[in-house]
């Protein structure tokens, strides 16, 4: 398991899952866990710390079922990444009722600088989970198809 933790309680992790990659976002709020899951998604491709915040893209999606909302959010980001050929290094999520509004800052892919490892095809329902752990932290996780 690869874990790039920071000093604050929000963090992301990868976990092993066959030929695919599990991603997990951990935070003090559900929104923060979703932001961290998105950073874990980016980290499958490249180091999120090297991505400049040159461009902001707004992402809206309906999340009528909270249990599947991480997949909806991550697939909306994967769509934006593919359509605009961008990588995101900073994210902001707001969930209100059945709506998720996100802002994603990043830049166009530069193969020489970003050295993308793989292309993420989509977020799946495998190992999907959203909720609080025993310490009260929010966790949002699933497996992504690479």
Q: Could you characterize what this model shows?
A:
The structure is a single chain. By secondary structure, the chain is an alpha+beta fold. Helices cover 25% and strands 41% of the residues. The chain has a single domain, classed as Archease domain (Archease, Possible Chaperone, Chain: A, domain 1). It has helices at 30-45, 69-84, 111-114; strands at residues 3-4, 11-17, 20-27, 55-62, 86-96, 99-108, 122-123, 129-132, 138-145. Helix 1 packs across helix 2.
Overall tally of structural domains: 1
Q: Which series of helices and strands comes N to C?
A: EEEHEHEEHEEE
| Structural class by sheet pairing and helices | alpha+beta
Helix content: 10-25%
Shape: globular
Brief descriptors of the model:
146 residues; alpha+beta; Archease, Possible Chaperone, Chain: A, domain 1; six-stranded antiparallel beta sheet; three-stranded antiparallel beta sheet; 3 helices; 25% helix; disordered N terminus
């Amino acid at each position: 398991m690869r874990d790039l933790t920071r000093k604050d309680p929000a963090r992301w992790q990868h976990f092993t899952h066959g030929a695919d990659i599990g991603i997990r976002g951990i935070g003090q709020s559900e929104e923060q866990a979703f932001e961290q899951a998105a950073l874990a998604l980016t980290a499958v491709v490249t180091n999120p710390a090297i991505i400049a915040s040159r461009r902001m893209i707004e992402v809206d999606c309906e999340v009528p079922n909270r249990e599947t909302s991480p997949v909806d959010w991550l697939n909306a980001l994967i769509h934006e990444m593919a359509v605009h050929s961008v990588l995101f290094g900073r994210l902001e999520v707001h969930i209100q009722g059945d709506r998720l509004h996100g802002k994603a800052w990043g830049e166009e892919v530069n193969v020489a600088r970003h050295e993308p490892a793989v292309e993420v095809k989509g977020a799946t329902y495998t190992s999907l989970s959203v909720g609080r752990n025993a310490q009260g932290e929010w966790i949002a996780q699933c497996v992504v198809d690479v």
